[in-house]
Amino acid sequence: MTPYGVPVLDVSAFAATRSDPTFVTDLEQALTAYGFVGLVGHNVTEALVQSCEDAARDLFALPDEVKAQFETPKDGRQRGYTGMGVERAKDASVADLKEFWHVGRDGVPTLPENRFPDAVPALAPAARALFDRLDALSLLVLQAIALGLDLPSAYFTDRVQGGNNVLRLIHYPPVGSKAPPGAVRAAAHEDINLITLLPVAAEPGLELRTRDGTWVPIRPPPGAIVLDTGDMMQLVTNGRLPATTHRVVNPPSATADRPRYSMPFFVHPKPQVRLDRIDGSATGPTAEAFLTKRLRETGVAS
Predict the structure, then answer these.
(1) What is the side-by-side order of every strand in the sheet holding 215-217?
(2) Which member of 68, 82, 148, 201 has the greatest number of CB atoms within 10 A?
(3) 237 by DSSP, 3-state: which?
């Protein structure tokens, strides 16, 4: 086990050449063994991440009745606000202790429109800038993943460009005595999408479950981006790149009065893309159908 909980790889050489075989091999091995990896050498700056987190802090400080005006259950809350007590892990009986805000791709008529409150003018430019930078990094990483699977480098990028990617700004409030019994910040779950890119959060709490069932804290170096593979990737690779179970545990009592902020970037294929196995052994549902089913299972969509 690495001191960071997961392997940490430098993506800069692959970014320069798009053909670094060492990075491709190391990435495939890390995702096979852990399902998670830390990335350094990217161009998602700490200043950019911090500017988006600062705007998110102002956003979640708004009154609940203001935030609720931006909640849209009819589209599965794919943009705008989702309040406390809504989302739960698949098959969980208690909702997670979090609220969040979804930001998506602009200018695509088939996708929901972004929703930003006038009261936080810094939010839209900061979130859009972080979205664009993580979007570009996701395409780079997906090229390397494709090469590691002996596929054409554009196999995944052709399927995701223009797709329904989502930047989720999450606020985990301080854990108080009124929390429902058994509730945690994020119960054990797997991500729905192909891959997730996650700037390192200032507060700890993220843990993954290893292949032998042990829970391990993820503590990558400052400035790293955590990459993990989700259910869609597990489906299309027939389990070769599995979705890894992870969670966000409640803080110890000494820090229970501190909030936690997190900004995962979920990468999805275009809605009409079918999630067929790369080995040709089976066809799959469309990305839209798969996502809709999971949103219903987690309580986000009705």
Answers:
(1) 186-189, 246-248, 206-209, 215-217
(2) 82
(3) coil
Helix or strand (DSSP H, E) at 265: strand 265-267
Does residue 289 sit in helix, strand or coil? Answer: helix
CB atoms within 10 A of CB 27: 23
- Residue-wise pLDDT tens digits, 104-145: 999 999 899 999 999 999 999 999 999 999 999 999 999 999
Count of helix runs (H) and strand runs (E) in the chain:
8, 13
- Euclidean distance between CA atoms 140 and 207, whole angstroms: 25
Q: What's this model's pTM, rounded to 2 decimal places? A: 0.96
Give the N- to C-terminal CA distance of the chain in Å, as an integer.
Answer: 41
Backbone angles phi, psi at 298, to 5 degrees: -100, 5
Residue 188: closest CA among 235, 227, 243, 233? 243
**Please, how many CA atoms are within 13 Å of residue 115, restricted to the half-sphere of its CB?**
19
